[in-house]
Amino acid sequence: MTSTETVDHALDLLIAHDMPAFADLFEHDGVMEFPLATGGATREVRGRDALHDYLDDYASLLDIRSLDRTVHVTTDPEVVIVEFTVDGVIVATDRPYRMVYIAVITVRDDAIVRYRDYWNPAAVVDIVGSDARLAGGRAS
Predict the structure, then answer these.
(1) Residue 112: left (phi > 0), alpha (psi -120 to 50), or beta?
(2) How far apart are CA 93 and CA 18, in angstroms?
(3) Which pTM was predicted?
(4) Going along the chain, which residue ranges are E strands?
(5) Domains of the chain listed by start with CATH number
């Protein structure tokens, strides 16, 4: 698979609510980073096992219904930049969820090595209110 195909597959797994398979796309010591996270929000999840734990209850928090994407190929064949908009529902409140993301994803040998997830923490708090689990970096 190319890096772009791996990223497309990862996003398809998010839509399918298959978080275990999403986490399995990561290299054993791969890392997911949230550079814009604020306060006590999660800034980094390191390792596939930790990512499985981190995403364990994701489907009970957010029901992703659609994901529009634009994938950008870079001069580095291992690095893909993707802009995407997620539409869904916050499970606990049935409130609509819409968020725009930019991710810089490094893929090597069909595995995600590094996933830098840029999202707007203030917008997440506006959407989810006081649900600290979503506001704490799990909203992507």
Answers:
(1) beta
(2) 22
(3) 0.87
(4) 26-33, 44-46, 62-73, 79-90, 95-108, 111-118
(5) 3-138 (3.10.450.50)
Give the separation between CA 113 and CA 125, rounded to whole angstroms: 29
Q: Convert the pLDDT of each residue in 21-41 to its tens digit.
A: 999 999 999 999 999 888 777
The predicted-structure confidence for 65-114, as pLDDT tens digits, reads as follows 999 999 999 999 999 999 999 999 988 888 898 989 999 999 999 999 99
C-beta separation of 58 from 67 below 8 A: no
Contacts of residue 124, Cβ cutoff 8 Å, sequence gap at least 6: 99, 134, 135, 139
At position 15, the amino acid (one-letter code) is: I
Contacts of 109 (CB under 8 A, 6+ apart): 27
